[in-house]
TrEMBL record, chains A, B:
Residues 5-79 form the HTH merR-type domain. It comes from Kribbella albertanoniae. InterPro entries: DNA-bd_dom_put_sf (IPR009061), MerR-type_HTH_dom (IPR000551), MerR_fam (IPR047057). This is MerR family transcriptional regulator. Keywords: DNA-binding. Gene3D superfamilies: 1.10.1660.10. It comes from the Bacteria. The lineage of its organism: Bacteria, Bacillati, Actinomycetota, Actinomycetes, Propionibacteriales.
Amino acid sequence: MAKPELSIGEVLQILQAEFTDVTISKIRFLEAEGLVTPARTASGYRKFSAGDVERLRYVLTAQRDQYLPLKVIKEHLGAIDRGLRPAAGGPPIAPSTPASGPAADDFGATGTDLRLTRAELCAAAGVSTTLLAELESHGLIVAEGKHYGGDAIVVAQVAAELATYGIEPRHLRPFRTAADREVGLIEQVTGPRRTDQTQQLAALTVRLHTALVRSRLPR
Amino acid sequence: MAKPELSIGEVLQILQAEFTDVTISKIRFLEAEGLVTPARTASGYRKFSAGDVERLRYVLTAQRDQYLPLKVIKEHLGAIDRGLRPAAGGPPIAPSTPASGPAADDFGATGTDLRLTRAELCAAAGVSTTLLAELESHGLIVAEGKHYGGDAIVVAQVAAELATYGIEPRHLRPFRTAADREVGLIEQVTGPRRTDQTQQLAALTVRLHTALVRSRLPR
DNA sequence: GCCGGACCTCAACCGCTGATCGAGGGTTGG
DNA sequence: CCAACCCTCGATCAGCGGTTGAGGTCCGGC
């Protein structure tokens, strides 16, 4: 399987879906600080592997959710590289951030209208094309034309992680149904165009959903 | 019970045993930042109670061991003051885990152990008892015995806000169903007890749900 | 009643972290 | 060939977490 290496701009697009405040210069800065070391083309362009993107995600998560200074994050990464399990409470090594933070309610600004090809999506999410196909067959990921949006990355990542618990794409169909119904309700109020109201409502319903799940979790 | 109130110099002595880098000016600075508020004598001298010293110890520990910014520590202290149980996982009495407050998607730590009466819940969420009753009749809020958990506040608040868009509790039943199914799926994997895994999985499924909703929202 | 040490306030300053900016210039793809 | 993208490197910056010092007050002992 060819591993499409991404340019810094593409990496930016991918990460901005999840971290609104990442910039090109920040990514370069993080390299200068030794937190990632992307490959280079002959002409000096950075080329990021899926692993590099993963690493950046780890850094940004640790910064945002645990307020760790870069120095400490770097140590953690070093420990991981040496094969040690990092300190407990650290962000999962695989992407399973409890998408928290002020960003949680942020339905507007996020999701730069990313347009990924199939291969880019697989690379960005670190999943096989097989899994992607399965997710599509259950309607969990839908292409618009030949491209996928930024949310597809999150869906794919989460699905991959759930798979490690034995939860397969087919078990996730109800999520699709629930999401469709939720969006349907919103559209009944705001009409079929995306507006500020659409986003506000979506933020609210998602908040509701989250609180309900939490309240029903075993004590 | 004599309450020996300490001068700033005495406090310094005490704390320096444990935190070598504490200074008088640092203690004063922490007061200026609102992290402690020692009493004052008539002439303006600071007088620290045992509780104040405890508080300082908490601040210094959180800084040293968890790298938390003062702003966040202050929030935690505020939460403790308001009677919320702080998170588990930190040293002595220290909290840990991502910030509470606005950053509310954390499944491990948030103030779920809250036990509110009906009246307290209505007051905290700013809703009428009528709305609460309606939410209960649709199973969106469920009391455990005579008390409600912290998530009920969120549910009530969101429901109230949705009502301003014309969305009424009865329209929200599907959310309850979806949440129940979601929790059911999680319990199939982890069993009926709450574990770390339960929380991780919940974080994942909620993330999935959010991404799905977003991806289906009108462009 | 006076002296020294502990304490007070307030404004200025400081060093570090975590970036951002811009000038000046090369690379790539249509 | 040109626009969009990428490169480096040095300057600059903003905020955090304090420190410093000037100028003055308070308190206990002699």
